[in-house]
Amino acid sequence: MSSLNLLALSTNNLNGSVPDNMCQHLLNHQGLYLSKSNFDGQLPSKWSRCKHLLVLSMGYNNFSGSTPKDIWNLTQIKTIYLGSNYLTGTIPNEIGHLPCLEEFVLGGNNLSGLIPTSIFNMSTISTISLDSNQFSDSREKFQQAGLSKTSLVNHFFLTICGASLFQVSACRRKTGISIFKYVIPGILSALLLVTSILIL
After folding, report:
1. How many structural domains are present in the chain?
2. What is the pLDDT of residues 179-199, one digit of tens each?
3. For residue 162, is it within any domain?
4. 70-86 pLDDT tens trace
5. In which element (H, E) is residue 108 found?
6. Strand bridging mode 38-42 / 62-65
7. What is the DSSP letter of 71?
8. Pairing verdict, β 163-165 and 155-160
9. Which residues are bridge partners to 7 per DSSP?
10. Within-domain flag for 175
11. With 81 labelled, which of 102, 108, 119, 163 sits at a CA distance of 20 to 30 A?
12. CATH of the domain at 90
């Protein structure tokens, strides 16, 4: 399976945990789509061999625990979508070291602590969704950082202590569209699989 470059299994009834050594067998894959299933346990911790990964989409599952440190070393990653799980812990400063990151979605978890301001200084970022967590940041922190509705961030929706910052209805709609596209590859792959079986 080392030649496989995309694994799309979203919107299925799959359950159980994801193998910790998954990247050992998927050395060249660029897209991992496992959203909207029933996976649980902790996220795999060994991501260093997934150095070509561009999209990591594992939202809407039952993953728990903290986000693995190896994820912040994926220097080619463009999309991290881990929203609507049960993840805990903090977002480390290392997120500012991802030079290609465009979409960062961790809303709907149990994350806490402070949000690194470096995330808002990344020139490539276009979508940040961190709503419905337990962050302890203050509104003043983001105002001092110069973050506003006119920021380089196109779609930003953040909830702190139950109060939404920069809550713009248009941004919420756009963010929903952006998130929905992560499950499309899984649906298409399932349709292609059924079609191939029928032909045979």
Report:
1. 1
2. 444 445 555 554 554 444 445
3. yes
4. 999 999 999 999 999 99
5. none
6. parallel
7. G
8. antiparallel
9. 32
10. yes
11. 163
12. 3.80.10.10
Per the CB < 8 A criterion, the answer to whether 186 and 33 are in contact is: yes
Using DSSP bridges, classify how beta strands 55-57 and 79-81 pair: parallel, antiparallel or unpaired.
Answer: parallel
Residue 119 lies in a domain: yes
Contacts of 167 (CB under 8 A, 6+ apart): 157
Highest mean pLDDT among 10-19, 132-141, 187-196: 10-19
Domain-located, residue 1 = no
For residue 46, give the DSSP letter.
-
Q: Residue 95 is part of which domain span?
A: 6-199
Contact present, 187 and 168 (Cβ < 8 Å): no
β-bridge partners, 16: 39
Spatial separation of the C-alpha atoms in residues 11 and 5, rounded to whole Å: 19
Q: How many other β-carbons are positioned within 10 Å of the β-carbon of residue 30? A: 17
Mean per-residue pLDDT, 53-63: 95
